Amino acid sequence: MLPPDYWQTLCLTLALAACTTALLLGLGLPLAYALAYGRSRFKPLAEAVVSLPLVLPPTVIGFYLLVAFSDSSALGRFLINKLGVSLNFTFPGILLGSLVYSLPFMVQPLQAGFGQVPRSLREAAYTLGKSRGTTLWRVLLPNMRPALLNGLVLTFAHTLGEFGVVLMIGGSLPGTTRVASIAIYDEVQSLHYAQANAYALTLLGVAFVILVALYWFTKRDAARLS
Amino acid sequence: MLDFHLLQALHTAAGPRTLDVRLTLAPGELLAISGPSGAGKTTLLRLLAGLDRPDGGFIQAAGQTWYSQEHRQFLPPQQRSLGFVFQDYALFPNMTVRENLVFAAAGQAGASQIIRDLLDSLELTELAERRPAVLSGGQQQRVALARALARRPRLLLLDEPLSALDLPARQRLQQVLAEVHRQYDLTTILISHDPAEIARLADRVLELELGQARRVGPPVALATSARVVGRVLAVLPGGRLRVQLPGGAEVEVSGLARTGEEIALTVEVAQTL
């Protein structure tokens, strides 16, 4: 038996994961590029900031974002009073939280991917007159496709399972901020084990299919290049 | 064609040293750089290509300033007309042989003709649709050479291009390199450890040691071997013979013979031109 707002919750969950993954790809690529090839002495600091969400409890991230978005902080007052943007308990709010929370899952595989492409490939492109942009697009990215795929899949799967950050910023508003993992919690609280199971089984299935696809593509790609 | 004076800090096994080399190359010259590892050979090549920034000095190439410490000028590698062949070939694994060349020649007038000529003169036409990973070392090296020439550079830099190849492949590639150097009217700098290779290809050799030019001049000629007949002067213990060569020189060799007997010997003669 499916819960009453099963499809709505599922669509919201997938939308959050898809938006997070797409935006993080755009943000993560330049960041990973800079971390992989940059020589700034502030690099360890930047790496620590990027990795922080890996070790912090999600509730800590969620708590600080909740405070930052509320009118008790300067940023929140600016957003609400000057721009008319209220982020707490909205979809954009949990999207922003997801971006912070999943950042390392995109940046770290990409950074490792950039690092694994032999330096001489990049330099060969430069001596052939190619710009950094052309080199990135035609040489680096095609030769780090497993890392790219890894970053995309991990970010997507990780966002699907997000709980603490979303709960802190978004609460559990059906159709707006109630994602599958929160729905499971709510259903269990109400002792609706069958409904909770419907969500849980769906998340399990999606996560498994995604990982199988990842390993299958990675294997095929390795075979193609050798 | 090329006039440079380059200074760069080196970290050698013997401690910190400074690479300090000043040299002028005539158009069409083929210069070999040799020397022990850590002498600064690859560093010098990378500085010329603009892959690293020198600490000081200048580079003038065909009237153009590539680098000048005095005028704070530094042309990035993209803007230097040169071809670079990397030690590990650095072929793009995601592209076929042809795609590697197309990528390199993109934006050139008559690119497709250039690519056809290169595939043809480096005997790559049959391999054009293959990916680098399935090619042998010698084949990959030919692709790397073709790709470096696709932009029609005047200067070709090769970082130990043949060291990883077996002898037959190496000798074939030396031939190819000599032809390409002539045919494409290049000024070439080649890092090599092989005296035979240097003697065969180079007009001049720069011997580097700990960042300093120990010698710049004509290469040492190939050791030539000759058969001579010598007379055994004495049979020594341990199967050694003392033999007198024509001209009077005496040598010791291993072998079985009687005193006074005449035996045939192969000798190698090395000489500096």
Please give the CATH class of chain A. Answer: Mainly Alpha
Low-confidence parts of chain B lasting 5 or more residues at pLDDT below 50? none
**Helix-strand makeup class of chain B:** alpha/beta
Residue runs with pLDDT of under 50 for 5 or more positions of chain A: none
- Order of helix and strand elements from N to C terminus of chain B: EEEHEEEEHHHEHEHEEEEEE
Which oligomeric form is depicted?
heterodimer
Secondary structure: helix percent of chain B: 10-25%
Furnish the topology, listing elements before pairings:
The complex is a heterodimer of chains A (226) and B (273).
Chain A (H helix, E strand, L loop, with lengths): L5 H32 L5 H13 L2 H12 L4 H9 L8 H26 L2 H9 L4 H9 L4 H16 L3 H7 L9 H10 L3 H33 L1
Chain B lengths: L1 E11 L2 E11 L4 E5 L6 H9 L6 E6 L2 E5 L4 E2 L7 E4 L11 H9 L5 H11 L15 H13 L5 E4 L8 H17 L3 E5 L3 H7 L2 E6 L2 E6 L6 E13 L3 E5 L5 E5 L7 E8 L4
Parallel strand pairs in B: 3-9, 3-10, 7-8, 8-9
Antiparallel strand pairs in B: 1-2, 1-4, 4-5, 5-6, 10-11, 12-13, 12-15, 13-14
Helix pairs in contact in B: 2-3, 2-4, 4-5
Question: What can you tell me about this protein's structure?
Answer:
The complex is a heterodimer of chains A (226) and B (273). Chain A has 226 residues and is mostly helical. Chain A has one domain (6-220): MetI-like (MetI-like fold). Chain A is built from 11 helices and no strands. Chain A has helices at residues 6-37, 43-55, 58-69, 74-82, 91-116, 119-127, 132-140, 145-160, 164-170, 180-189, 193-225. Chain A is globular and about 65 Å long. The N and C termini of chain A lie far apart (49 Å). Chain B folds into 2 domains: 2-217, Rossmann fold; 224-269, OB fold (Dihydrolipoamide Acetyltransferase, E2P). In chain B, 24% of the residues lie in helices and 35% in strands. Chain B has helices spanning 41-49, 97-105, 111-121, 137-149, 167-183, 195-201, and strands at residues 2-12, 15-25, 30-34, 56-61, 64-68, 73-74, 82-85, 155-158, 187-191, 204-209, 212-217, 224-236, 240-244, 250-254, 262-269. Chain B has a 6-stranded mixed sheet with strand order 7-8-9-3-10-11, with helices on both faces. Chain B has a 5-stranded antiparallel sheet with strand order 2-1-4-5-6, covered by helices on one side. A 4-stranded antiparallel sheet of chain B has the order 14-13-12-15, with no helix packed on it. Classes of the chains: A mainly alpha (226), B alpha/beta (273). Chains A and B meet through helix 6 of A and strand 7 of B.
